Amino acid sequence: MSKLLGFFKSPLGACLTLLSRLIVATVFAFAGWPKLLEPDAFAESILNYNLVSPNAASLIASFLPTLELTVAASLLSGVGARGASALAAGMLSMFSLAIGQAIFRGIDIDCGCFGDASSSSADWTGLVRNALLILLALVGMLGPATLLNTLGLLGLRSKSPRE
């Protein structure tokens, strides 16, 4: 395990971490923005899963897009990136559970993953996509804590005289 963690302190590991965080951030930004603009449509998508009440769906639709965009901003800026990676992995796990129960129960619906910007069914491809994103989010947890640390490992940040 220590060799694996050591790898993420190398320049190659830092690149992998940065790339993983950028991919997850991009997906979360593209997922969150359309839902933020159309909360009522997103609430309908949530209701289609038959898991929560209309009031709960409205509540979820009001805060989830903001949370997705906050995670994306954190991953892109590097501020709190490890925590944002962990939160992204947790959120993706919950999304996967919702999709999985829809598949199991035979509910044929649009996943609502990207709001009205894109249409995709709640099916196995969504589960595979989420599994890959969870893996990338976990990689994002292992690398340097901040963007400045990552840039330092890559030799893209000059050290201050105090360092």
Shape summary = elongated
Would you tell me the structural class of the helices and strands? mainly alpha
What is the makeup of the main sheet?
Answer: none
Estimated share of beta-strand residues: under 5%
Number of helices: 7
The H-and-E topology, N to C, reads as HHHHHHH
What is the radius of gyration?
18 Å
The percentage helix is over 70%
The parts where pLDDT drops under 50 for at least 5 residues are: none
Q: Tally the beta strands.
A: 0
In round numbers, the mean pLDDT is: 86
Distance between the termini: 29 Å
Descriptive labels:
single chain, 163 residues, mainly alpha, 7 helices, 72% helix
Layout of secondary structure:
Layout: H1 2-7, H2 11-37, H3 39-47, H4 54-77, H5 81-105, H6 124-142, H7 147-153
Helix pairs in contact: 2-4, 2-6, 2-7, 3-4, 4-5, 5-6
Q: What report would you give on this structure?
A:
The protein is an all-alpha fold. It has seven helices and no strands. It has helices spanning 2-7, 11-37, 39-47, 54-77, 81-105, 124-142, 147-153. Helix 2 packs antiparallel against helix 4 (54-77) and helix 2 packs antiparallel against helix 7 (147-153). The longest helix has 27 residues, at 11-37. The mean pLDDT is 86.
Summarize the structure.
By secondary structure, the chain is mainly α.
